[in-house]
Amino acid sequence: MQRNTVIQALMVFKALVFQNVPITPRDRLDYSSHAWICMMFNARTFTDHSKGIVGEPALEGVHSDGSDHTMTVFLDSTNMTPGSAVTFLHDNKEATGVPVSQVDPALIKARVQHRDFLDTLVFIDHDHKHSVTSVEPRCASSIARRDMLVVFTRRPKMAGHVSGYGDSMARHPQSPMQIPLWQP
């Protein structure tokens, strides 16, 4: 994935969007560092009613991801209804874990839906909680599928941070990726 120029461009885009945007610091992250830790993964969600599987992109309900910045990018979908997989940004007053069907409408701050290739949502994770509705099939006898790229970015951890087991500033030995963006 590191050699993909679209991925590289998305990472630069995200860095430039969030440059100098103030954020509320999270506990045990090193905000004196100029480095960023990035976690990126593909998320495939599918619904197959014939097997009793309902695709929930955010099964945990209303939540925050624990990053400084979150970016979600639409890659593809098949057999998905137009009302599927809607993302809601909530005021932090909304209770964590509440199913999207039970949220307080007054605490919804934004509604976003990824529909087309590379539709992208970027937000400051600590400023809003979020939730996503389920993936529903247009044709109930076929599988509905949605593919997303999810990118979390945060400052490096300090001692005692929950991610201490896996955080590293070392480059991957076979597929290193570093995007130096020196700012004056």
TrEMBL record:
InterPro entries: 2OG-Fe_dioxygenase. Keywords: Dioxygenase, Oxidoreductase. It comes from the Eukaryota. Residues 163-184 are annotated as: Disordered. GO terms for molecular function: dioxygenase activity. This is 2OG-Fe dioxygenase. It comes from Aspergillus novoparasiticus.
